[in-house]
Design brief:
Elements lengths: L2 E8 L3 E5 L2 E5 L4 E3 L3 E4 L2 E2 L17 E5 L3 H7 L13 E4 L11 E4 L2 E8 L4 H7 L4 H8 L4 E7 L1 E3 L4 E6 L7 H9 L5 H8 L6 H23 L1
Parallel strand pairs: 7-8
Antiparallel strand pairs: 1-4, 1-8, 1-13, 2-3, 5-6, 5-12, 7-11, 9-10, 9-13, 10-11
Helix pairs in contact: 5-6
Length: 224
């Protein structure tokens, strides 16, 4: 797998226009040359306003592929640049159909592991002034993903991204998206994703809840 870090982007929470008012958000990232220190809690100089749903050890770094930008330039803005989706790492060579949950990458002197797909929220839609954007991202599967930091280190734009470890039984980001957004009531698919030990705690909680509901529906059908 040949990949590299095209743009390194960080930003602290600031006001974002939404619904005639403002919300605080860290989605407005700016590119920096670096080097920046990557720690278990994220990149230096970066921050989130809603720490309940963003950031934390399982979501230390948000990754998005620059290969997706031509598509979104045609739908949103012809001037879109790396960092436009609020990602920390704008990458080339790491696509959802190939990257697996549990993959371990070396970037600069840091080592990080894929933990879950990104689930877009209303702040991404507000960032681009398009209320349907979160839904479009889910439907296309062009979500990006998150990394947890396994070994702190320094990263900078231009760094090579090397695959140094991969799970024996992995599920790709694309497959995980289909299970979460398209096969949410299929107990077998949910169980397959839950069997991935490297999956983030947040996704495990959501999927366990869905599994209980899916199992209850199946039992109800059998007894009706």
């Amino acid at each position: 797998m040949s990949a590299h870090l095209v743009s390194l982007n960080v930003g602290l929470p600031r006001p974002l226009a939404h619904g005639g008012g403002e919300v605080q958000s860290g989605i407005l990232k700016s590119p920096v040359r670096g080097p920046l220190r990557l720690r278990e809690t994220g990149l230096e100089g970066d921050g989130q306003a809603d720490v309940e749903h963003h950031g934390g050890p399982d979501k230390a770094v948000c990754v998005y592929a620059v290969e997706h930008l031509p598509y979104w330039r045609g739908r949103l803005d012809p001037e879109l640049e790396p960092g436009a989706f609020g990602e920390n790492f704008s990458t080339e060579g790491l696509l959802e159909a190939k990257v697996r949950i549990g993959d371990v990458f070396r970037v600069g002197t840091a080592v990080a592991q894929v933990s879950q797909p990104r689930i877009p929220c209303f702040k991404l839609a507000a960032r681009h002034g398009e209320g349907e954007l979160a839904r479009w991202v889910k439907e296309t599967g062009l979500t990006g993903f998150y990394l947890r930091c396994l070994q702190p280190g320094e990263v900078r734009a231009g760094d090579k991204i090397s695959l140094v470890g991969s799970p024996e039984r992995g599920v790709t980001i694309a497959e995980a998206n289909r299970i979460m957004h398209g096969q949410g009531h299929d107990a077998t698919s949910i169980e397959r994703l839950l069997a991935v030990p490297e999956l983030s705690a947040e996704w495990k909680r959501m999927l366990k809840s869905r599994l209980r509901k899916a199992t209850a529906r199946q039992k109800s059908k059998l007894t009706s």
